[in-house]
Amino acid sequence: MQASQIITATRNEIGDSIQPYRWDDEDFIPIINRGRSLISTKHPESRYVSSIVTSALSDISSVIADDGLTGWYSDALIHFVAYTILSEMTEDAAMLASAEKNYQKFAGML
Fold first, then answer.
1. pTM metric for this prediction
2. Could you tell me the pLDDT band of residue 68, with boundaries at 50, 70 and 90?
């Protein structure tokens, strides 16, 4: 999957798919990289390339690298990113509950 696909899927998962977005695309990149690292630590076979992004982005559409994750690895990454983004919303109980649900899905896939 490309970074833009992961971001779109995560936005759909967290209900942030209509502009104006609550989170900027650039907010997702370090979380995607962290999630890829976690997954590849547990499942080395899931990683075929290095981090999706290694430098600052000027335009998210320029990120076209295939991250090598397929099937449930991609799904696990999407749940990790959703969990991380939503867990920052400490003032919103519904967001925290959704974060916990995404974390459980992520953890269950590992």
1. 0.76
2. low
